[in-house]
């Protein structure tokens, strides 16, 4: 159906490219490019073994717009799927505009020297994509991504409006390591050490990172401590669903993880301010990343399940008063590894990236412009989640959350 160029060859990319190859009726030709070609070749070898599909590989620096444009032209792609890092989003959007192809990513742009999770840089591309007749889809992972589509599906089928929403992200998996992150360590640690922020009655409420803790009994996982934190979809959800009074994001962390982060932060290892080390300037967090386990190698070691979803409260469509729904997916680390060689955090991000890309190639999401996931029709995306390894469930709760 369409030729696709994937940029980045980490954990998320590996899961996404395997799933694209399993759907070769939609992804007729895949080119995978990253800054180190051998990482692409490793993924291509596994894809060939698991699916029989040949993918092309290339080396490219995503910050080099001219090189990316040349690669787009050479590959004949009509869609670029950005599974590199958030720092590269704007350059890759520039390359798509210049080459005249569509764009999709899983994380909002971040300047490398500021841990700011804001959409305005990418929203500023709206007119340029519209005028070029091209589509850019932002945040097609699980959160943001599936959690945003869950909210839209509830609003389309169950609730007239969403008064309050809580996004609950639980990783009940264990990889046996003293300390390891489940996706890129640099991005993960920037996220969890940032101030917690939630939307309440028309304003942001800020609190220190990892201080507001609640125990929650997650379906398929059991009781875990989850912490209030900021996540980028809060900004887009409160912007596009203007009726939302309160929007919060929660993520589970074990005590050992929290203790490690606190110690590392206390001694300055999570800082993104440059320091001099033996005559060279280094960024402590980037150095830390280089000594931590590579998340793409954790697949074989990780056991347990993830459970990610939304609890939303609003007026029922059928006029029966206020209702609360919990909509979620449970995903098993070992099953993901058996299928595509990745742990569930890479899988739950890579599969929605594949499904979002499929929406563009199938022509379901073709409106020119820059869109967040909750702005798009949810139905085919939700069907594809059920068909491609991320089945979801929805249940009515007795009332709004009490935490
Ligand atoms: P990884 O670090 O494993 O992979 C990133 C890849 O991008 C690596 O292959 C890296 O190359 C490559 N890369 C980095 N810089 C460049 C560059 N300048 N040019 C070309 N390639 C480059 O990250 P993950 O797979 O864990 O995460 C990928 C993305 O997914 C991130 O943006 C992350 O924030 C997002 N994410 C989104 C989630 C969601 O639910 N929405 C959840 C989890 C992650 P090299 O291998 O050489 O380092």
Automatic annotation (TrEMBL):
SUPFAM superfamilies hit by this protein: NAD(P)-binding Rossmann-fold domains
Pfam families xrefs: Sacchrp_dh_C (PF16653), Sacchrp_dh_NADP (PF03435)
Domain spans labelled Saccharopine dehydrogenase NADP binding: 5-137
Signal peptide region: none
Gene3D superfamilies reported for this sequence: Dihydrodipicolinate Reductase, domain 2, NAD(P)-binding Rossmann-like Domain
Residue ranges constituting the Saccharopine dehydrogenase-like C-terminal domain according to the UniProt record: 141-390
Protein name: Carboxynorspermidine dehydrogenase
Source taxonomy: Bacteria, Pseudomonadati, Pseudomonadota, Alphaproteobacteria, Hyphomicrobiales
């Amino acid at each position: 159906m369409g030729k696709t160029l994937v940029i980045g060859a980490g954990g998320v990319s590996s899961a996404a490219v395997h799933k694209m190859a399993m759907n070769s009726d939609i992804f007729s030709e895949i080119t995978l490019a990253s800054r180190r070609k051998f990482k692409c070749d490793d993924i291509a070898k596994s894809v060939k073994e698991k699916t029989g599909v040949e993918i092309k590989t290339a080396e490219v620096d995503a910050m080099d717009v001219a090189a990316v444009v040349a690669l787009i032209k050479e590959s004949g792609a009509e869609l670029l799927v950005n599974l590199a890092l958030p720092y590269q989003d704007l350059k890759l959007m520039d390359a798509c505009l210049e080459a005249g192809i569509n764009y999709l990513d899983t994380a909002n742009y971040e300047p490398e020297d500021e841990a700011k999770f804001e959409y305005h840089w990418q929203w500023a591309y709206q007119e340029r994509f519209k005028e070029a007749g091209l589509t850019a889809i932002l945040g097609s992972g699980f959160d943001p991504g599936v959690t945003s589509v869950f909210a839209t599906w509830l609003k389309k089928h169950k609730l007239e409006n969403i008064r309050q929403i809580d996004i609950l992200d639980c990783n009940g998996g264990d990889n046996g390591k003293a300390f390891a992150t489940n996706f890129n360590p640099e991005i993960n640690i920037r996220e969890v050490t940032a101030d917690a922020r939630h939307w309440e009655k028309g304003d942001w409420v800020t609190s220190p990172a990892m201080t507001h803790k609640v125990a929650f009994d997650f379906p398929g996982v059991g009781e875990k401590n989850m912490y209030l934190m900021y996540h980028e979809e809060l900004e887009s959800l409160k912007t596009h669903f203007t009726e939302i009074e309160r929007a919060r994001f929660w993520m589970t962390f074990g005590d050992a993880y929290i203790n490690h982060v606190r110690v590392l932060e206390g001694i300055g290892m999570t800082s993104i301010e440059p320091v001099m080390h033996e005559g060279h300037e280094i960024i402590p967090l980037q150095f830390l990343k280089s000594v931590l386990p590579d998340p793409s190698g954790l697949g074989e070691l990780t056991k347990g399940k993830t459970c990610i979803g939304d609890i939303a409260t609003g007026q029922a469509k059928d006029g029966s008063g206020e209702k609360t729904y919990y909509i979620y997916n449970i995903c098993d680390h070992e099953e993901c590894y058996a299928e595509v060689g990745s742990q569930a955090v890479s899988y739950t991000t890579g599969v929605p990236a594949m499904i979002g890309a499929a929406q563009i190639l199938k022509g379901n999401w073709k409106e020119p412009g820059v869109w967040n996931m909750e702005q798009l029709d949810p139905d085919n995306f939700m069907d594809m989640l059920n068909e491609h390894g991320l089945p979801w469930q929805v249940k009515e709760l007795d009332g709004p959350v009490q935490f």
